[in-house]
Amino acid sequence: MVSDPGTFGIRYVLVRLPAAAGDAVTSLHPDLASDDGPDAERFTEVRTWRSDDPRVPSYRLYRVTDPAPRTRPTPEEGFRR
Q1: How far apart are the first and last CA of the chain?
Q2: Which residues of 12-21 are buried (b: 16+ CB within 10 A; e: fewer)?
Q3: Which helix (H) or strand (E) holds 16?
Q4: Whether the Cβ atoms of residue 73 and residue 16 lie closer than 8 Å to each other
Q5: Longest distance between any two alpha carbons in the chain, whole Å
Q6: Confidence (pTM)
Q7: Of 6, 25, 58, 67, which one's alpha carbon is 20 to 30 angstroms from that of 38?
Q8: Do 65 and 80 touch, CB atoms closer than 8 A?
Q9: Cα separation of 60 and 74, whole Å?
Q10: Chain-centre distance of CA 81, in angstroms?
Q11: Do residues 39 and 69 make contact, with C-beta atoms less than 8 angstroms apart?
Q12: Is the distance from CB of 8 to CB of 1 less than 8 angstroms?
């Protein structure tokens, strides 16, 4: 899901700044914060929350540019309550 969030209908991704060790999102999308990398077409920055305290991480929210359409499950024909 992290490698291709749009395919799985993921609409937003929240990333810690600086990235924590083992962060799957920034590991697979290292140029996420870059304006000219391959991920620039897939993600749009929405908002950044910064902390003045160096012990508290900042966060950045990205919108997935082209997520798969949201579908709702439908009951099978003949299904009755």
Answers
A1: 34
A2: ebebeeebee
A3: strand 12-17
A4: no
A5: 59
A6: 0.73
A7: 58
A8: no
A9: 35
A10: 37
A11: no
A12: yes
